[in-house]
Design brief:
Blueprint: H1 9-32, H2 37-48, H3 52-62
Helix pairs in contact: 1-2, 1-3, 2-3
Length: about 70
């Protein structure tokens, strides 16, 4: 039996939201443990399977340096 799987817009948004949330957690923990941006980018790519460009965009968005 075969079929077509259709993903709804809400499912796409949910999946995207989960990916961004996970990226935000990885960035926050990386910074908390003193990792530099290069190590955080590498970890983002390894753990989430995203491109370097997407990882960089997430780091710019969620990478808040603590004072």
């Amino acid at each position: 039996m075969g079929g077509i799987v259709i993903e709804t817009e809400s499912e796409k948004l949910f999946r995207k939201g989960r990916a961004e949330g996970r990226a935000e957690e990885i960035i926050g923990m990386g910074q908390e443990f003193g990792l530099d941006d290069t190590a955080i980018l590498k970890r983002l790519q390894e753990k989430t399977g995203i491109s370097l460009e997407t990882a960089t965009a997430y780091l710019e968005r969620y990478g808040r340096r603590l004072v």
